[in-house]
């Protein structure tokens, strides 16, 4: 399976089907991924036998109409592009001086369907953001986040197998901990019964019929 296939699958998952409805014409996200990949390859610079540096900042310019369509998808699109471009860099054994940053900007000189990608290398201050991915939607987590079926939960899930206050995730800025809140049907962490446990990156939580993926992602300061 090619990297572009992986990109497109990831983007379709991220936008929950909005992909097909929004991009019937003009620029499509998969074209952005192809351009980002090409820009990264073009500017790959070997600095040692086992070290190839690539730019970490990418600005994608497009027509105002295309930019409005992409912006409508919000942060999940940027997050998915960043995650998947990072995966591509890892596959190619590329390295960056700082975490990847991707920005989309309108350019009145470009017509619908065209784009221009410019890259540069710069060090950026990053913050680590814990998120919970549920059915393709990414939910940022705070210091204490309650997940449940009730309206008082911070993340509400429509699942009859989930209690009104089912479980919570606590984040201290460095690590996360998951706690079951005495739910009726219980919770699992990576397939094991959960009472209270440290939550490693890429962990899978299950409550009722709902599968939740916990991740910690890097974000540029100010984004």
TrEMBL record:
Protein name, entry field: DUF2662 domain-containing protein
Keywords (A to Z) from UniProt: Phosphoprotein
Source organism per UniProt: Amnibacterium setariae
Pfam family, one: FHA
InterPro entries found in the cross-reference section: Cell_Proc_Reg/RNA_Proc, FHA_dom, FhaA_N, FhaA_N_sf, SMAD_FHA_dom_sf
UniProt-listed SUPFAM superfamilies: SMAD/FHA domain
PROSITE patterns attached to this UniProt entry: FHA_DOMAIN
SMART domains in the record: FHA (SM00240)
Annotated ranges, domain FHA: 145-194
